[in-house]
Amino acid sequence: MKEINDLLKSNDIRALSYKKNGNVIISDTNIGKIVIKKNSNKDYIYNYLNTRNFNYYPEIIDEGNYIVFKYVDDTDIPREQKVIDLMDLISLMHSKTTHYKETSEDEFKKIYEDLSNNYEYLYEYYLDLISIIEDKVFMSPSEYLLARNISFIFKSIELGKKYVESWLEEINGLNRIRMTIVHNNLDLSHYIKGDRDYLVSWDKSKIDIPIFDLYNLYNNHFLDFNFFELLKRYESVYPLKKYELELLFILITMPDKIEFNDTEYNMCIKISNAIDKLYKSHDLIEEYSKIERK
Fold this sequence. Notes:
Blueprint: H1 2-9, E1 15-21, E2 24-29, E3 32-38, H2 43-51, E4 60-63, E5 66-70, H3 79-96, E6 99-102, H4 105-134, H5 141-170, E7 176-182, E8 191-193, E9 197-199, E10 206-208, H6 211-221, H7 227-237, H8 242-252, H9 264-293
Antiparallel strand pairs: 1-2, 2-3, 3-5, 4-5, 6-7, 7-10, 8-9
Helix pairs in contact: 3-7, 4-5, 5-8, 5-9, 6-8
């Protein structure tokens, strides 16, 4: 706390109160509310975003071992509108930070092998798991829920494996891939609608393939919104290349590894969510397939 006090003092800031909120501290001060958090050494991200004329994050007051931001009040707007605005902001960020990275056949081969091995592992895992469950005289509710939906899990695995092969064909001969800044922690709670748009919680940000932002947002909100409409809105600003879209489909059709390591009630919720996610993913892919057929 002494280090924080010294940092504030060097900026003529006098703290009136402190309140812990997750991994940040919110403080009332003589200059208004501020947010203090441990610096994750992502300074280069903010600097790079500035060079690309993308400064949609709270104003930084000072940074050292800790980083101090001005606090931004969130405007109360419908979640459906908020996620649309977030998608607009992400497509803008990706378009402003796009560059291309030279790559090699060996790098693509490594990704292909990792994806294929993951699907093979999940196939064997669920094959063994359902054998154990079906051998029981009485299934628990969560086991019965998994057994009822096991065929759809295997269907998702087969679909994902097909997309892996299609993706390999698509990137054949490709010698560079599109890279952007990815926030890498997209959640509706990390978007603030203040006097303008703000993204917070940049701790996991990095330079990578743009679809990882879409994948994170999908994982966090697949039950909440129509992602087909959201993705089409995103693509109206930043169209995805076919190999990027196929990689996104590969990731969202990959079943979660369900382990029976929680209470029966929680296991039922966990399995239900995992199955719902697969159904949502299949529906999303089918919508895109309709467009391709047209």
